[in-house]
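Hi all, long-time lurker, first post. I run a small reading group and we've been trying to get comfortable going from sequence to structure in the token notation. Rather than ask abstract questions, I figured I'd post a concrete chain and ask someone more experienced to write out its structure so we can walk through it together at our next meeting. Sequence below, copied exactly:
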Amino acid sequence: MKNIFSFLLCALCFFTFRANAQDDLINKIKGNQSDQAKFVFTKVIDLENTSVKDQGSSGTCWSYSTVSFLESEMARIGRKPVDLAEMFIVRNQYIEKAENYVRMHGGLLYGQGGAAHDVTKLYGKYGMVPQSVYTGLHYGTTRNNFNELEAVLKGFLTPLVGDNVKQLTPVWKTAFTRIVDTYLGEVPETFTFEGKEYTPKTFAQEVVGLNADDYVEFSSFTTSPFYEPTVLMVPDNWSYDRVYNVPMNDLTVIVDNALKNGFTVTWGTDVSERGFSWKNGVAYVLPMDYSAMTDEEKKNIFAGPQPEGTVSQEERQMQFDNYQTTDDHGMQIVGLYTDQNGKEYYKVKNSWGEKNDYNGYIFVTKNFLKLKTTDLLLHKDGVPKDIRKKCKI
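-- Answer (accepted) --
Happy to help. Here is the structure in token form:
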């Protein structure tokens, strides 16, 4: 199991935390003092993406990262990006997840977390609205805070799957939806955007213009055959969606191909590693176990480019199976850069606001992505043709 450091970090994205807990946890993972000047990054590819957002005290990184991805997809197909409503997706996910929770007699995780495919599936089913129409801040704050909401929703659902309820009434879902809408707001049947009236479905079709069926998801596990679909075995995959299982090295091949052809990528990953520093805006694989490092080596972890550890398919699987890699966080890969030594890093957009050395972005090595990725989601046209053929996409 992970130590308390890792447990606290996982809470950042998927568990309930107090109003200011995100700031406290970020301080725990920021590493040493800022060493930004000792890293010199040079742009190779930098794709269009919208402004950095702050998910606040909510475990909704999966929505923020993938909605940001949809905004970049709008730009890619030649449409003007719109600030889309993350909480519209969250609202619909909360309701659908509750149905599965009850149907499974409480046998799945009901919390704030989710996965990238939740966004594309719910976009396809319900459409989309702009942020100006649905902020989700219907409970008197200017920043997401899901502490009370999660407690209320769990308090409603838990008795429904207990021994005292022998048969559900046909109105439980209506009552549950009213609670969600009391906190996040009711979704308007129609709304006006830039002088024209839309429904969420027509807005998705006419303004966003993306086809939900065009998006595919990948991961890498030795427990399933490569190039075939497998269930993504993480607790927040409440819909039991499947991903294409590919060898570890294909993960970076996919991302590189996507970026070179103008496609950004949604990235699910573990961010509890000592080699991940939000404050410094850098993530890499340490060359040795942190506990084996000298005090001087620990001090210099982020003092400019360092030697990096190697990774393997077997090590990746072992860390996943031993809970050293958990599905902590979702972000968006938007570019490719090199450091002063020529080493390549992915530029990644986060949703923790702009308070780090790179104004809300972080630079991640390819080895870190190979070792710590839980899933990648992107447009199928961004996937190399040979991998698409092997996966029968």
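A couple of things your group might point at:
The chain has one domain: 4-391.
Residues 4-391 form a domain with the Cathepsin B; Chain A fold (CATH 3.90.70.10).
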